[in-house]
Amino acid sequence: MIEVVQTVSKMHQVADRLRMAGQRIGLVPTMGYLHEGHLSLISRAIQLSDRVVVSIFVNPIQFGPNDDLSAYPRDLDRDLALIEEFGAHLAYVPDAEQMYPAGYATHVDVEGLTDHLCGLSRPGHFKGVTTVVAKLFAAVKPHVAVFGQKDAQQVLVIQRMVRDLNLDVDVVASPTIREPDGLAKSSRNVYLTPEEREQAPVLYRALERGKQLIEEGHRSAHHVVREMRAIITRAPHATIEYLEAVDMEGLAPRPHLSGRILLAGAVLFGKARLIDNISVDVP
Predict the structure, then answer these.
(1) Using CA atoms, how far apart are residues 239 and 256, in angstroms rounded to an integer?
(2) pLDDT band at 68 (very low <50, low <70, confident <90, very high)
(3) Nearest partner of 23 among 56, 50, 57, judged by Cα
(4) pTM, 2 dp
(5) Dihedral sign computed on CA atoms, order 241, 273, 260, 62
(6) How many CA atoms lie less than 13 Å away from 168 in the CB half-sphere?
(7) Contact call for residues 127 and 107 (beta carbons, < 8 A)
(8) Backbone angles phi, psi at 94, to 5 degrees
(9) I need a labelling partner for 102 at 20 to 30 A (CA). Which of 119, 176, 211, 274 fits?
(10) Higher-confidence residue: 69 or 213?
(11) Mean pLDDT of 59-86
């Protein structure tokens, strides 16, 4: 039976015991409602560590006033069964009072990388992400933490936080897991109506087209993004929040494409906000 830890103090005790025994701790931070993407992160963490901790916490401070905090899907019993089935050893399931007790007043804010993409369209989002991840690192004391490449900006922001704060954690990005039609696995996919679900893969198709254009020799970001937008706008249920070609170093738009480029987009389908990205090494 998988061990479930609900308090920070107990998590400290468990982490200290594992470290004293010479065990390498792997962490997979999640907000629950696990899908195949999360399970691939668990499998990767198992490869990289001796004991895998999966955290489940729907973090309120990374949701904006118009976001879906109250409606965010939750099913703890199902999540715990999946965690155990896929071979993780422990679930860390704190509540909001454990994470943000009365009088809580400290936040972690990474500047620069959070000025673009999701950071521009969701002010304060990454401040909530980096704060909760820093707190999870402090409680679980992992040697390695595994995140999904689907959240590419999040991975880069957390890696910068770890580097800037001299945290002794190896942050690993694991490949995006997709449906057969290319749609990236996401807990928010449950919000899609049948019609929206049919159209949702258009985001990935647009990113793939952008990659193809770059590989064919196109170097104008304006041209590449315009072609990607044209594909998405043909889907009547899709509303583009952003669609960009940015450099992987600072995530800033680059008019002339060179080096390593991230093609990234966020598209709204009714209640579902879907994000996806593809990295391209410009020849």
Answers:
(1) 26
(2) confident
(3) 50
(4) 0.96
(5) positive
(6) 6
(7) yes
(8) -75, 160
(9) 119
(10) 213
(11) 92
Instruction: From residue 232, give the alpha-carbon distance in Å to each of 6, 8, 88, 219.
Output: 43, 44, 38, 21
Report DSSP state, residue 248.
T
Q: Distances in Å between the alpha carbon of 266 and those of 63, 79, 244, 274?
A: 16, 26, 9, 6
**SS3 (DSSP) at 175:** coil
List pLDDT tens digits, range 23-41.
999 999 999 999 999 999 9
Q: Tokens at residue 27, please?
A: 């962490």
Residue 66 has pLDDT above 80, yes or no: no
Residue 50 · residue 25 · CB < 8 Å:
yes
Order of strands, sheet of 272-281, starting from the edge strand that comes earlier in the sequence = 238-247, 260-269, 272-281
Strand residues in the chain grouped as ranges (E): 3-5, 25-30, 51-56, 90-92, 144-148, 170-174, 238-247, 260-269, 272-281
> Among residues of the chain, what percentage have pLDDT more than 90?
96
Distance CA 166, CA 199 (A): 43
Q: Which residues are catalytic?
A: 38
The domains located in the chain, with CATH, are 3-174 (3.40.50.620), 187-277 (3.30.1300.10)
CA 29 to chain centre: 9
CA distances for 226 relative to 138, 173, 231, 258, angstroms = 43, 29, 9, 18
